[in-house]
């Protein structure tokens, strides 16, 4: 889960106010739609990149709860808070909802847990700039489905889990059988399917299956001869070039990774980058 997901879940579970960046004038290290939840006991979830800003919003949220009114605040460039500066020199517009609709929040959180898209209407005042974000959309976090065997799989799964990324590993000979696809394999539009085999005869049935799913990323390791043979077998099985172009191979960002840890870092960075490109708010 991301920090924004954390904010959504805290706000859905209890009495937290919800702070959302709805406009950025310039550049900032968080996107429009980034959120911070502030519970009445002082618990905070999410992160708007600046500890001073987080603390300021926690105070503003407590006051908004006491007032019972939505606040629209400007920080940085053009802000009336002249004693509160943002190092980036940009301007941020942030809406604070002291009492967000808990049923809508719960529904949005449940959808994320069920790995479905969801959205939440934001309580913008009537005179708000029409260019500000009015609806926060959420997508499920990235998930890895690793199919393969060996040190590369171990390194990738370990690295993903240290980053809080869900990783399901099905190992050749231990959960996978040659030329068979387990009935319980599933890949949604936010799942990356990664085939890390040195013995490439394990790939064919699994790649055909992966190409039939909505997985946002499909990758397979292997040198040039293996890649040529792989594509030839898939074409012979009736798959077209529009399907085969979904296969990322060579896999990862670093060319010719020769170490399991380097390959793991290379693959995970590429996958996370592709997942970031799916985010509805940039």
From TrEMBL:
<feature type="domain" description="XdhC Rossmann">
    <location>
        <begin position="144"/>
        <end position="271"/>
    </location>
</feature>
<protein>
    <submittedName>
        <fullName>XdhC family protein</fullName>
    </submittedName>
</protein>
<dbReference type="InterPro" id="IPR003777">
    <property type="entry name" value="XdhC_CoxI"/>
</dbReference>
<feature type="domain" description="XdhC- CoxI">
    <location>
        <begin position="10"/>
        <end position="76"/>
    </location>
</feature>
<dbReference type="Pfam" id="PF13478">
    <property type="entry name" value="XdhC_C"/>
</dbReference>
<dbReference type="Pfam" id="PF02625">
    <property type="entry name" value="XdhC_CoxI"/>
</dbReference>
<dbReference type="InterPro" id="IPR052698">
    <property type="entry name" value="MoCofactor_Util/Proc"/>
</dbReference>
<dbReference type="InterPro" id="IPR027051">
    <property type="entry name" value="XdhC_Rossmann_dom"/>
</dbReference>
């Amino acid at each position: 889960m991301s920090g924004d997901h954390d904010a959504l879940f805290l706000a859905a579970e209890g009495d937290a106010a919800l702070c959302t960046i709805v406009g950025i004038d310039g550049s900032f290290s968080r996107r429009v739609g980034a959120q911070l939840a502030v519970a009445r006991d002082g618990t905070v979830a999410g992160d708007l990149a600046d500890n001073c800003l987080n603390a300021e919003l926690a105070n503003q949220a407590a006051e908004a709860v006491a007032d019972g009114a939505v606040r629209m605040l400007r920080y940085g460039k053009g802000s009336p808070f002249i004693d509160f500066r943002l190092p980036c020199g940009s301007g941020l517009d942030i809406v604070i909802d002291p009492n967000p609709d808990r049923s809508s929040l719960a529904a949005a959180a449940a959808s994320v847990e069920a790995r479905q898209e969801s959205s939440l209407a934001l309580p913008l005042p009537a005179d708000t700039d029409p260019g500000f974000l009015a609806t926060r959309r959420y997508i499920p976090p990235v998930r890895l489905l690793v199919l393969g065997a060996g040190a590369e799989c171990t390194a990738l799964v370990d690295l993903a889990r240290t980053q809080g990324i869900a990783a399901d590993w099905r190992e050749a000979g231990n959960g996978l059988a040659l030329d068979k696809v387990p009935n319980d394999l599933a890949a949604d539009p936010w799942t990356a399917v990664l085939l890390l085999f040195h013995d490439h005869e394990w790939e064919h049935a699994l790649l055909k299956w992966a190409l039939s799913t909505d997985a946002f990323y499909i990758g397979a390791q292997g040198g040039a001869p293996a890649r040529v043979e792989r594509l030839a077998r898939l074409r012979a099985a009736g798959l077209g070039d529009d399907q085969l172009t979904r296969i990322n191979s060579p896999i990862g960002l670093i060319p010719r990774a020769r170490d399991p840890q380097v390959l793991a870092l290379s693959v995970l960075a590429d996958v996370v980058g592709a997942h970031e490109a799916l985010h509805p708010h940039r």
